[in-house]
Fold:
Amino acid sequence: MARYREAVCRLCRREGIKLYLKGERCFTEKCAIEKRNVPPGMHSRTRRRAAAAYGEQLRMKQRARRIYGVLERQFRNTFEKAERAPGKTGENLLMLLERRLDTIVHRCGFASSRAQARQLVLHGHVRVNGKKVNIPSYVVNVNDEVSLKDKMKENAVVLQARELAGRQSTMSWLEVDREGSRARVTALPKREELLTPPITEQFIVELYSK
Structure:
């Protein structure tokens, strides 16, 4: 299964903002953005021209891909599903990405990063309505219950993620029982809750509409 295998801190530096790809490290002074907020590469400190409209659209698409840990083909397929669904294509795209199983596991505080959540799913530690699901891109529906298998509830990685999540607010569309390592999707995600890191979804729609 294809996935990004390089240093993820380079992705944050390329975007110039925190993408929160390394869990707790992103909240400390060790974060790459805190230490040196310049794009990677030997010419990173030279002056660059302002990006044209296409460059801004491409940059926003890349940012969304990197935040959700999705490669190009899968991202394009998700966009096409969003395009076929009723409503605004851009918002539909973000809602589909938010309802991915690995994203839900991360949002619930069972993993400190999406990469860690993806690993939990792939290794068969996650249940949806009591059944094992090991597909990170699985789309969770309203009223579905997501939980960890019993022997993972006291796992050191999960406990550390739970502690980190306790310092952050929970999404209003999730009903989370962190002690029991289970959560229920009570509604569809709200667009106004998906502002960190910022994404202008209209740029992505314009890029794929060319």
